[in-house]
Amino acid sequence: MSEEENLQLFKALSEETRYKIIKVLLDGEKCACEIPELIGKTQSNTSMHLAKLQDWGIVKARKDGKMRLYSIDDEKVRKILRIAEE
User: What confidence score (pLDDT) does residue 75 get?
Assistant: First the structure.
């Protein structure tokens, strides 16, 4: 990871909503419609954070019909969180 990528990842993890989104996505791909309920935030707030995480290359999205599905895009995120939780 470059220094900029590291900074973006730590910015993401230091903000509560983005951290919760990442934690939820560690369990696997989730629909944009279910993430807000899982993290206790509004749809618009969640969408804003998902867009930022996607811009930073931390999560990726794909369309399945009308659904937008999100998942972790950088496996280093999994490793970092695994280490942090030990």
Answer: 85
Residue-wise pLDDT tens digits, 3-30: 888 888 888 889 999 999 999 999 999 9
Which long-range contacts (C-beta less than 8 Å, at least 24 apart) are formed by 17-23? 17/41, 17/45, 17/46, 17/49, 18/49, 18/52, 18/53, 21/46, 21/49, 21/50, 21/53, 21/59, 21/70, 22/53, 22/58, 22/59, 22/72, 22/77, 22/81, 23/81
Q: Are 62 and 48 in contact (CB under 8 A)?
A: no
